[in-house]
Amino acid sequence: MSASSLPLLPDQRLAAGAARLATRHAGRFSAETVQALLTDSYNLLAAAAQVRRHLVVVAERFTAERLVALARVQGGPGSGLPRVLFVCSHNAGRSQLAAALLAHRAVGQVTVSSAGTHPAAEVEPFIAQVLTEAGVDASGAFPKPLTDEVVRAADIVITMGCGDACPVVPGRRYLDWRVADPDGAPLAAVRDIRDAIAAHITELLSSLPA
After folding, report:
1. How far apart are CA 43 and CA 7, in angstroms?
2. Under a CB-based contact definition with an 8 Å cutoff, are residues 161 and 143 in contact?
3. Which residues pair with 145 in a beta bridge?
């Protein structure tokens, strides 16, 4: 497929993002694959978006994560760092807390991602605040839909209240962390949820290979 026959993207900035990602992944993914994935990412995020001002930027970041996951799937089991995926219903509270806390504590040990079976439009109030209080960078967090390649790239899938909607892929390690939902909770309760998740992460880290 020639560049001229590629489907038009909804925004010129998105086309520029596709070009950046294609350059970054040259030799692994074609420009057509990158553009198709970026278009899909944009549409998935747009379905839940209330404000679209930053949607182009977020779609590029989401696509970058998906491309890394897809590369891991193609590379086969055991390639790269262990991957941990946190899944909850809305990817707006518990899974965001867990992903940020694990990424902060396990730099260079694991690759961390999070997603929601029915992603919300934005991250829950107080999530950024309680992470900042714990010394964790909470900038740039946004709810992401659960996609096939992200699940298949994971070595460990940790579910957090998504019930039967969470996918099961053979050969992965599955854990279910039963912690309260911060949706609508006061700040003190969200701090308690953060600390409960942090305790689970301590246990998880002790079980990972050195």
Report:
1. 14
2. no
3. 116
Using alpha carbons, list the distances in angstroms from residue 172 to 9, 34, 82: 35, 27, 11
The confidence band for 52, taking pLDDT boundaries of 50, 70 and 90, is low
Q: Containing H/E element for 96?
A: helix 94-105
Mean pLDDT taken over the chain: 89
Q: Which pLDDT value is given to residue 9?
A: 58
Residue-wise pLDDT tens digits, 12-33? 888 899 999 999 999 999 999 9
* Cα angle for residues 144, 169, 200 (degrees, 5° grid): 65
The whole-angstrom separation of Cα 138 and Cα 116 is: 18
| Among 149, 150, 145, 151, CA closest to 167 | 151
Question: Is it the case that residue 132 has pLDDT exceeding 80?
Answer: yes
Q: What is the DSSP letter of 159?
A: E
- Strand 173-176 vs strand 111-116: parallel, antiparallel, or unpaired? unpaired
For 103-125, letters b (16+ CB in 10 Å) and e give bbbbeebbbbbbbbbebbebbbb
Is the whole-model pTM more than 0.85?
yes
